[in-house]
Amino acid sequence: MKVLIVFAHPDKRSFNYSLLQAAVKRLEENGNEVKVSDLYRMNWKPVVDEDDFLNHEKGTRLKITAASALAFKEKKLSADVLAEQEKLAWADTVIYQFPLWWMSLPAILKGWIDRVYASGYAYSVGPHDATHFGYRYGDGVMKGKKAFLITSVGSAVEHFSERGIGGPIEDVLFTLNHGMLFYPGFTVLPPIVTYRADSRRDEVYKNAEKAVLERIDNIDNVEPIHYRVQNAGDYVIPELTLKEGLEKPGDSHYDIHIKKD
């Protein structure tokens, strides 16, 4: 297995960095190849600007999608972006590891997505006709690859329960799992979430490490999240609304986009 870990935490003494080291060690012990994009140590530029597109005329109006698509087509994306795209092409499994800040990604990781998932590469690809609305949500450049999140939160698990004030963790992470991973085609495995990561309790770290190592050891047997593929017949095109009657009784909100037996 070829594994890319995209890692976002500023401190090498952190809970997350210790988990990263444990994961890399176990992956390599199991005979896997591993690459790590440690974004803070790379001093990753997190903002999209005209410097990303080497064929863009400086100072002229920047239309991000158009400029990104043209630069991707002409191989004129900046060198750092191209290097990360090469890592994604190399990997068959991608792990995104980060602390959950303000219910989302750290800015540096969001900036990695913004820049690396270029137009023509991860979005705005494929035909638009009676049966397809582009290659996305289950199709696309990442199809055939696995991905999942490893994240930590400072709050207790109850805060992210069905009645918790933060909302169910499945809902909080839906836009990342479905919109960031499934959109370009990844097969999405359930996330690994650690609660009370700031508690400094030894058992919290031990349980988190155990969960990560068990995932690595059993990754071929992990059941993915069965999101509905956009172009497989479940959605009305081009409206992209779920066809009536496909949801299960009691399904609502994000649940209707997951197939259940």
Automatic annotation (TrEMBL):
Residues 1-214 form the Flavodoxin-like fold domain. The keyword Plastid does not apply. One of its GO terms (molecular function) is NAD(P)H dehydrogenase (quinone) activity. It comes from Maudiozyma humilis. Gene3D superfamilies: 3.40.50.360. Pfam families: Flavodoxin_2 (PF02525). GO terms for cellular component: cytosol. This is Flavodoxin-like fold domain-containing protein. InterPro entries: Flavodoxin_fold, Flavoprotein-like_sf, NAD(P)H_dehydrogenase_qn. Keywords: Oxidoreductase. Transmembrane segments: none annotated.
